[in-house]
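Tokens in:
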């Protein structure tokens, strides 16, 4: 039996050592902070008829009763949601009917005809009816209304666009508003209102001053509050918007361009007015 005594380990002897190392790298844009409210700027990319477009406003439940500690009006989860929900109001009155052109293409017309407050030429420029091949369902037309609203942030913020589910409509829409979600610190762009028409025999009635859609802002960390400010259309911001605008006409998956857009992004885009 041979007993081999091990020599004492020297300070440089690492033969029996195993070392686990992990690295974490975080990239943060200049001016970003994870504390305090996240600042979100809004502006109108096109000032034409700008007086029609009201500033986005924070959603409020209105007059509610709080006569009981367990009432819905006292629910903290409702408060938490409403604190990051803002509504964008409809800027015009229109009663739209679905129709087709002489060539059988989908189209819309104003049911009020010459009594409408909106000129036919404006409707043609304002409303885009998608071709049938782009519909989600073969019997449900999709239209978009162009709007000049842009939301942007220097903090990591996602915008979620959704229907005005807290607004009671005595005359419900004959379809559903389409939804979307994207990062406004990387991909600020003009918002459109998209609508999927389920019952084409009923008109789509839009009333000025009613909520057209909501925007909800997601932050990191999630408990940050939202400070909404009107943003100055600085040269850096407008140039960045110009680089993003229209790319949907050239690629199918615009999210694949996020890294390219971020590489060209100026350090700061939001300058409150």
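Residues out:
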């Amino acid at each position: 039996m041979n007993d081999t005594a091990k020599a004492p380990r020297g300070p440089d002897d690492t033969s029996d050592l195993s070392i686990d190392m992990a690295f974490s790298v975080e990239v943060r844009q200049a001016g970003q902070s994870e504390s305090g409210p996240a600042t979100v700027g809004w502006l109108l990319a096109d000032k034409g008829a700008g007086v029609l477009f009201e500033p986005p406003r924070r959603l409020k439940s209105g007059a509610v009763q709080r006569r009981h500690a367990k009432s819905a009006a006292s629910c903290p989860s409702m408060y938490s949601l409403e604190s990051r929900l803002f509504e964008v109001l409809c800027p015009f009155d229109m009663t739209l009917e679905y129709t087709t052109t002489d060539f059988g293409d989908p189209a819309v017309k104003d049911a009020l005809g010459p009594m409408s407050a909106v000129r036919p030429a404006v409707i043609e420029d304002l409303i885009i009816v998608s071709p049938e091949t782009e519909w989600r369902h073969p019997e449900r037309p999709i239209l978009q209304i162009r709007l000049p609203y842009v939301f942007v942030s220097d903090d990591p913020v996602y915008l979620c666009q959704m229907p005005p589910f807290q607004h009671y409509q005595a005359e419900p829409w004959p379809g559903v508003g389409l939804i979307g979600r994207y990062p406004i610190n990387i991909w600020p762009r003009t918002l459109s209102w998209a609508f999927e028409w389920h019952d084409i025999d009923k008109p789509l009635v839009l009333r000025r001053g009613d909520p057209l859609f909501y925007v909800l802002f997601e932050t990191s960390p999630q408990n940050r509050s939202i400070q909404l400010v009107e943003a100055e259309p600085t040269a850096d911001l407008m140039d960045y918007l110009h680089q993003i605008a229209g790319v949907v006409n050239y690629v199918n998956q615009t999210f694949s361009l996020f890294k390219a857009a971020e590489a060209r992004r100026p350090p700061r885009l939001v300058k409150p007015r």
